[in-house]
Structure formats: structure tokens, C-alpha cells
Design brief:
Pfam family, one: NUDIX
Protein name: Nudix hydrolase domain-containing protein
Order of helices and strands: EEEEHEHEEH
GO molecular function: hydrolase activity
Strand content: 25-35%
Keywords: Hydrolase
Shape: globular
Number of strands: 7
InterPro entries: Nudix_hydrolase, NUDIX_hydrolase-like_dom_sf, NUDIX_hydrolase_CS, NUDIX_hydrolase_dom
Helix content: 10-25%
């Protein structure tokens, strides 16, 4: 992926099961070997909700029945480490259907349900910040490294 002179828009989707656990996968390609909630890029002309539906279907084969934007993250750790600056829109999903599958085995080592207060490490900063916003019931947190040129 090429670097841009401006931030890109990403999506992070927090899916919660009936036990209150969230869906986490281990990345294989982009942000390699880090754990993360599912997500990806917002495509041109998509709403946040449409992007979330598409990404979740592509990655897990689940069907989102209801989603809500709950947070925005400014992913400066990724910028510092990789030179890729993303702003991520975080959506919360509590209603979904289907059977969980790993649809992109070349990109993800598998999906697991985890306690959101016990995230596996190393963890992708956009995911960690999004989960923090969910747990703290806030829309944005400035926690993270500040990058200066």
C-alpha cells in the first residue's frame, strides 16, 4: 500500500456476542502479526454502515443486522511505525446473523471471542483505541503517541 500526504479513512467494527465478548483476529499482512477487531478501508461512495456490512461479510461471512457509529480514532502509532496515517470510524454491532468463518485466511490467522478488557498483544492501535472508547463510553480519546516532524 502506498503512503499518502493526507490521512485515509478506515473502519473498525466491534462485534459483541451474547456473553459480552468481542471478535478479535490476528492479522497476517497489513499491520502484520497484530491482533485487531475486524475492519478495513471505507470505499468511495459508501456510508460507514455499508462499509461495515461489506467488510464483515468479506472477513467473517457474518451478516450485520444493526450497527452504530460509536467512536473516531486518530491512529498515530501506525503513522509513527509505518508512515500510514488513518482516521478510523468505529462501529458497534450487537445484532448479527450467520456462522463465523475465516473468509480471508491469507490476511487473518483466525477469529476469537475475547474479553474486551483483556485484549491480546501485540494489538493494532486503531483497534485498541476503538475498544477503549467503547469501554469508557467516550467518542474519542487522545491517548497514543504524538508525532512531530
Amino acid at each position: 500500500m502506498r503512503n499518502f500526504d493526507y490521512p485515509q479513512v478506515g473502519l473498525g467494527i466491534i462485534i459483541i456476542n451474547k456473553e459480552g465478548k468481542i471478535l478479535i483476529g490476528k492479522r497476517k499482512n497489513s499491520h502484520a502479526q497484530k491482533y485487531s477487531i475486524p475492519g478495513g478501508h471505507l470505499d468511495l461512495g459508501e456510508t460507514f454502515e455499508q462499509g461495515a456490512i461489506r467488510e464483515i461479510k468479506e472477513e467473517t461471512d457474518l451478516d450485520i443486522l444493526e450497527s452504530k457509529v460509536i467512536a473516531i480514532t486518530n491512529n498515530l502509532e501506525t503513522y509513527k511505525e509505518e508512515g500510514k496515517h488513518y482516521l478510523s470510524v468505529v462501529l458497534l454491532v450487537t445484532k448479527y446473523s450467520g456462522e463465523l468463518k475465516n473468509m480471508e485466511i491469507e490476511k487473518c490467522g483466525g477469529w476469537n471471542w475475547v474479553n474486551p478488557r483483556e485484549l491480546p498483544e501485540p494489538h493494532f492501535d486503531a483497534s485498541r483505541l476503538g475498544v477503549k472508547c467503547y469501554l469508557d463510553k467516550i467518542f474519542y480519546t487522545g491517548i497514543g503517541d504524538i508525532v512531530t516532524n
